[in-house]
Amino acid sequence: MSKLKEKTLNTKSNLDFRPTVTNNIEKPGTEPKRNVFEIDDLNLWYGSTQALYEVNMNIPENQVTAIIGPSGCGKSTYLKALNRMVEMVPIVKTSGTIKYNNQNIYKDKISQEYLRTKVGMVFQKPNPFPKSVYDNVAYGPRVHGIKKKAILDQIVEKSLKDAAIWDEVKDRLNQNAYGLSGGQQQRVCIARALAVEPDVILMDEPTSALDPISTLKVEELVQELKEKYSIVIVTHNMQQAARVSDRTAFFLNGELIEYDDTNKLFQNPSDKRTEDYITGRFG
Ligand SMILES: Nc1ncnc2c1ncn2[C@@H]1O[C@H](COP(=O)(O)OP(=O)(O)OP(=O)(O)O)[C@@H](O)[C@H]1O
User: Fold this and answer.
1) Which residues form the ABC transporter domain (predicted)?
2) Which domains does the chain possess?
């Protein structure tokens, strides 16, 4: 056991210590990544119930950032705060700052529509529209005013290719997306998110409703997508976080307890509560 781990586990003062939150530790020799999101002192309330406490966390560009923690710790709330989707709940109040590409999403003149285009979201259960595969993917571009069939055709093909589903659906573009398997539907939903050219893709437990083979396909896809996009993924599955992410954040009771390089967090966590969670002592 390393000295740090031994100390963390055995020293009373360390057990009581405030969470250590470290951002963007880079491996020697790698270029530091730019932050696509910078979150400072984020608090969030549903009415009088506080769900997030003083969250400080930077999200690097072109990386996969995993959010883990027990049920009810605020993972989905945090994710939906990033594109202001959480405000669809009317009783939500926030304080603090969320900067997306250096712009304060609450103060600067960023419309919610623009933000949700650039910061796309994929949900736990595949939620295609009851339309053809083609119309699902073309939906966003059409809303943005693209009408020419040739351009829409290109966008649909590129998005489906980027979502690693083109070969499976290219001969059934006009069939209803409901006729696809759950795993295929989820990749069509990812293609639908990609079709409006986002920067960031937020994924809220995107594989929890999928079988192991479909899960593997989505995990491989996440690895490919980070070349072009920044990804934030909420997952209950710690093996999944360890497999797909570069950085991992552990939340507990609305607090960000620890945020670090994924290898570091799983192999040598700094906080006893992280250690307890990842070793299955609670949650
Ligand atoms: N619409 C809502 N109205 C009131 N409270 C809410 C609402 N949504 C979430 N909460 C509360 O906020 C806290 C955080 O919930 P959240 O869904 O973000 O947790 P989570 O970590 O994503 O949980 P899970 O892993 O079970 O999905 C919980 O106490 C929850 O009850």
Assistant:
1) 37-278
2) 3-105+112-278 (3.40.50.300)
Show the beta-strand stretches assigned E in the chain.
35-46, 49-60, 64-68, 92-100, 103-104, 119-122, 200-204, 230-234, 247-252, 255-261
**Residue bearing the CA closest to ligand 1, atom 24:** 71
Task: Quote the crossing angle between the two packed helices 133-143 and 149-162, to the nearest 10°.
Answer: 110
| pLDDT tens-digit readout, 201-255 | 999 999 998 889 989 989 999 999 999 999 999 999 999 999 999 999 999 999 9
Global ipTM: 0.98
Q: Is the CB of 25 under 6 A from ligand 1?
A: no
Taking only the tens place, the pLDDT of each residue in 38-49 is 999 999 999 999
Alpha-carbon gap, residue 73 to 196, rounded angstroms: 31
Say how far apart CA 246 and CA 36 lie, in whole Å.
Answer: 15
Centre of ligand 1 from the C-alpha of residue 278, in Å: 21
Mean pLDDT calculated for residue range 105-110: 82
Alpha helices (runs of H) in 67-165, residue ranges in sequence order: 75-82, 112-118, 133-143, 149-162
Of the CA atoms within 13 Å of residue 172, those in its CB half-sphere come to 14
pTM: 0.86
First-to-final CA distance of the chain:
24
Q: Which residues contact 139 (CB under 8 A, 6 or more apart)?
A: 129, 131, 192, 195
Residue 72 beta carbon below 6 angstroms from any ligand 1 atom: yes
List the one residue out of 79, 34, 37 whose CA is nearest residue 58.
Answer: 37
Q: Is the CB of 75 under 6 A from ligand 1?
A: yes
What CA–CA distance (Å, rounded) separates 276 from 283?
9
Mean pLDDT of 169-191: 95
